[in-house]
């Protein structure tokens, strides 16, 4: 069976959930071979093996942390040369897409980004994408070379599929030309204790209607009662009420949770582009004409400062 | 010596319009008004700020696209760019990201550059891969996804806000930079700027000028193929209630019914 390379997104050996989703999708088109760059490959290999990785190609070099993107492209190319895979899958993060693009160019292959589904087809993998602010769904495939596809988080439910997950060292030579962009310093983001926005099953977002940074705890309290991540619209971020890293929308994060709750968000195209593929959508807004209500499964026309705290209390009561 | 800055911009269909596909499954450009991609305005703005901080710099704004794409160039010129290059050729119709990066890279080399500035992504395709592809093709450093950028002493430095960390980056020129919408609000063209833009030179190039064969680009040369496009079914009308004191409770009832609580 053909092998499929899966790029492992991890923080110090802790594999992030989108990688497990990639392994699940990879099994539809071949045998997953994970590529782990950096330290603690043995830690990662356990969970990668549980999710179907037959092999973990591991390389650790200081250059991965010292220079931006290009050394990782060198490593992935080495893995590609070692395996001759049927496809290469990467997460649709900013870095994942940049690595994918440069790899595709080097190996003479086409690239598809932001797939929301991948399946086997007669002429190679078929990727589903959600385009024009999720108003269209397209099916695409790569016509030249080995398909390089990046996949959005929450595109598949990770399935357990025990496999060997044997760690093999991958020899990587980082080219001098890959040492062009120095990472002078790195400040890890402080953990809020809440789920990661792109990975969360439930997201609660606040917008212009939250009317000030001092009111965002109302949104956070609801999120915490549901075990959800907190998002914000561009209007709320531009006003400085919430960090850009939490922005949901075309120029922020694209999310596709099981449940999306929009509070005080009108639903401009910029926001809809980032959340329209959510499974269940709920909105709370004072303005009954707000375009967000066109998308909802359930909407409440009302003041979020009445509705959200009441909902939070009710959730807490029901959860005991 | 003058700092040569090339800003890559894209003419895109207005996202607030009703966008759809043409018969050949390329983006239908006839039905929706086009404009300079909003995310590229941030690139023009940062290029202008880099120029203002430099002793001597010149900004060339570059686009690949049909005749109307000239509008995007005019907007950038009216903001303050010095000159423009427009790559236009009928054979370019349907070119994908890899093909576009080839055309841009050849045009950038022909123009001459020390710094290439791009937006983080286009607002239509939203792939966000072009800056990385350009760096690979030009074999220069990629300093991408920057929320802050500056150029000094032959070096570009910037801040990249990633998913898990914030990084400070540094590279020697020549380099390819991309900036996010957090890099700073783009200026509005002044009346004077709009008048001045009419007199600024726009160079027109075709594939022959760039020594690119027609089969390397266009729909035929594309490395990817769209087999089908379907309009997403409209969401079935949901339940909408007015809060008369019970809105929170009613919503909790709905969420419990859906097993979210």
Explain how this protein is built.
The complex is a heterodimer of chains A (320) and B (261). With 320 residues, chain A is of the alpha/beta class. Helix content of chain A is 29%, strand content 28%. Chain A is built from 9 helices and 17 strands. In chain A, the strands form 3 sheets. Chain A has a 9-stranded mixed beta sheet with strand order 9-8-7-10-6-1-4-5-11, with helices on both faces. In chain A, strands 14-13-15-16-17 form a 5-stranded parallel beta sheet. A two-stranded antiparallel ribbon of chain A has the order 2-3. In chain A, helix 4 packs across helix 5 and helix 6 runs parallel beside helix 9. With 261 residues, chain B is of the alpha/beta class. Chain B has one domain: 3-Layer(aba) Sandwich (Rossmann fold), CATH 3.40.50.620. Chain B is built from 7 helices and 13 strands. A 9-stranded mixed beta sheet of chain B has the order 9-8-7-10-6-1-4-5-11, sandwiched between helices. Classes of the chains: A alpha/beta (320), B alpha/beta (261). The interface between A and B is large, with 93 and 82 residues.
Average pLDDT reading of chain B: 94
Q: What percent of residues of chain B adopt helix (DSSP H or I)?
A: 25-40%
Poorly predicted regions of chain A are none
What's the arrangement of strands in the largest beta sheet of chain A?
9-8-7-10-6-1-4-5-11
The CATH superfamily of chain B appears as HUPs
Order of the strands making up the biggest sheet of chain B: 9-8-7-10-6-1-4-5-11
Number of helices of chain B: 7
* SSE sequence of chain B, one letter per element: EEEHEHEHEHEEEEHEHEEH
The shape of chain A, in one word, is elongated
Determine the mean pLDDT of chain A: 95
User: Roughly how many Å apart are the termini of chain B?
Assistant: 65 Å
